Structures are given as structure tokens and as C-alpha cells.
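Need C-alpha cells for this chain, all 350 residues.
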Amino acid sequence: MTDDFLSRDQKRRAQIVSWKAIVAHYQKPSPWRALWQIIDSIVPYVLLWYLMYRSLSVSWWITLPLAVLASGFLIRIFIIFHDCGHGSFFKSQLANDTVGFIAGVITFTPYYHWRWEHAVHHAGSGDLDKRGTGDIWTMTVQEYLESSRWKRFAYRLARNPIVLFVIAPIFLFLIRQRFPSPGASKRERESVQWMNLAILGMVTGLIWIFGFKSYLLIQLTITGVGGAIGIWMFYVQHQFEGVYWERGEDWDYTAAALQGSSFYKLPKILQWFSGNIGFHHIHHLSPRIPNYNLERCHKADPLFQNVPSVTLLSSLKALTFRLWDEPLRQLVGYGRLRDIRNEQKQNADR
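Here are the C-alpha cells for all 350 residues:
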């Protein structure tokens, strides 16, 4: 038994050494690829924004498709922002911070504050004892059963698809992120204030140029569509069949990355718009890999490819997941609560 345990432990250590050596090669940023990504993301976004303004006087049926397309470029800009927050987009930290702040203004997201919350997410992703910061609210079955009626109602409301993918994006990007979290440090709190000032300046200028009504209609549409897609991407990357969750003492970084973050196989065009973030297992394995290197790293070793994949069609099943069942070690729907109550009733009757 001891020999078997040592053998498994040695194999796991060898595996870690192996993947660390591989990912190190893809952690090197390319200034030219980074600059081109800035150009092919921000320039089309600005152009589409202007075309939407011009289309308002023609037909909303022209404006709406342009808004969907613009939201795709907004997602790419957010991925740039995201990579800058990880310090992976450029080699220079100053360049990362500068571009990250500018992308934050465009996406209405405070750079340093978001970077702190997202780092907390990475440090505890898949750890049941570290939920609550930078993630989507997920309760265990037992926690739900032991909660008050009000908390259960709030949870069901928060997990409702209409709230999660329609109301939440507007609330999160336009309202929630205007205020720092209670646990934020001085720099993170000040980053929210500076970002609010920068956004105020941008919004004031655009309203002066395009008018209040036009600006509001265009920005709300782009933010709503782009935010909904962005939250869906984040949701399905950690809420899928076979996902990894463990308590702190049993949590393993490598397992959490390769099994707790999805490999979302998207059509090439959607993969491009989403900045390769579908290779989320690689991203969680090494956040220092810039998005333009994620696919190449994924293809570099069978270890990275032999993970459960999620397709557009199979990802829809994630809408049925509501709670984590610890005994079953899987995500379940609310129907599981009925099964548990029936089991409890049968046991009481015996």
C-alpha cells in the first residue's frame, strides 16, 4: 500500500515537473502579436461604434447586428485587459498596466481592483473552502438546505438565467464595479475612483459628440450583449459536467486547472472573438501565458489535450446545474433537493 502511494505521488510530481517545463516556453509575450491584437480589436470596435451611430437614423435592424458584432470586439478588448491583469500580455509591467487601464476604461472595469479579485479566483478555483470572491455564487446542497428561506430565494434569483445573463451584465459593468469591495486595499479602492473619473470623462465626451440618447442606446446595447456573452463564457468555464471541486485539504492545483476549468471547443470565429479563453484549463494551469499562445500550448502535450471538452451544444446543459452535491461529487439541479427530502421522509417512516 505504501509503495503504491509513493508510486502515485512520484508520478504526480513528475507530471507537475513535466507541464511546468512545457508551459514555460509559452509564457514569453510577443510585443508584435500584442500590438496587432490591440489594433485588430480596438480599431474595429471604434469603427463599429460610429457605424451604429450612423445607422440609428436609418433602421434599428441595422444597428442591432452591428451591436452584436461590436460586442465581439468588446470581448476581445476585455481579454486584453484580462491578460494585462495577469502581467502576461507584454513583458513590461508598465506596458501591461497602461494598456490594462485603457482597456478598463473601454470595458468599464477598474484595473487594479479587478486584478486583485481575479487573482483570488485563480488561487482558490475549485476549492470549496475559498468560494465567494471573483466567482459565480455556487452553494452546496447541504448549505442550501441549511439556509434561511430568504437566502434560498436570493440564491435562486441570482442563478436564474434571466438575472444571470440579462440583468447581471448591465448591473455588474455599469453599477457594481463603480464601488470597491469591502476587503479591497487602498490601491484597489483608489483604482476604482480613478477609473470612475476616467469613465466619466469618456462618457461626457461621447455624449457631447453623439448626444445623450444615442450614446445611451448604443452603449447599453453593446454592454448588454457583450456582458451576457462574457458572463456565459465565465460561467461555463467552471460550471460543467465532471467539474472538479474539493475541500481545502484535498485540493490540488494541477487537478483544479485541468479538471476544474473547461476546454471549451468553439468554432474558429468564436474562438478568435473570445481571445482563445476557451482553452481555460491551460489558462488556469499558467495565467502567465498570453491568450495568443494558449492554443499552441494546448497542442504541445497530450496531457493538456486529454481533458474533458465542452462544445457549444453540450455547454447548454450547464443551465441545469444549480448546486454542488458533495457526496455525489457533481453539480446537480434543484430536483436533487426533492430526492433528498423523499429519502429523508422514507428514512423517518421506517
